[in-house]
Amino acid sequence: MKKKERAIEIYDRLAKRYPFPEPALTWSTPWELLVATALSAQCTDERVNMVTPVFFERWPSIKDAADADVTQIEEVVRSTGFFRNKAKNIKAAANRIMEVYDGEVPKSMAELITLGGVARKTASIVLANAFNINEGIAVDTHVKRLAFRMGLTSKTDPNQVEKDLIPLYPQEAWGDINHYLVFFGREVCPARKPKCDECELNDICPKKGVK
User: How many CB atoms sit inside 10 A of residue 32's CB?
Assistant: First the structure.
């Protein structure tokens, strides 16, 4: 089976497993999704979903976050890890949105990645889920691992993995393939002890790197 053929078959099978893919993060506005995604780096979604209600009760709007004392933001987000950097980036992003984008989260990759702490992964997640715009494929640890394991890339750098994945899928599928691989990576194909015996991709997966 050729790589693109396998990629599409993976997508089709996982689409049946996850018919209604949505982020595990809790959010209701583009700004809330951006903050939640920023906090999710090196942190579980469950922990982030405990922190964000406190954050948005304290600072409901982007302007509130821009005006906030960064040390107070640090205290609220402390449990998500790397809290000083995350607090600094969230405040910087809020400031830039207020100053440059009239208080509205921008709707393009080029604009989003100018915000504090926002790289392509976060930008892709915000665009796909908040605006239904697919400008890239968000590559986190699960996507990177599964793309390699399933023979869709030989790279380990997230930007290179994304470049390998993009031509394998139609643009309208870019947001969903991120969800599928993240969910599947958590449930069936973790880094250690993948459940190959119960995997619906077992017959087409080359299992690269699996001992």
Answer: 20
| Contact (CB, 8 A) for 35 and 76 | no
From 121, 144, 164, 176, active-site residue: 121
Look up 121 and say whether it is catalytic: yes
Q: How many CA atoms lie within 13 A of 181 on its CB side?
A: 28
| Residue 211 banded pLDDT, cuts 50, 70, 90 | confident
The domain in which residue 187 lies consists of 3-21+139-198
Catalytic residue flag (residue 140): yes
Distance CA 62, CA 33 (A): 12
Q: Which of 130, 150, 179 is the last residue of a domain?
A: 130
Q: Whole-model pTM?
A: 0.94
Q: Contact 153/143 with Cβ under 8 angstroms?
A: no
Annotated catalytic residue within 45, 91, 107, 140? 140
C-alpha 190/C-alpha 142 separation (Å) is 8
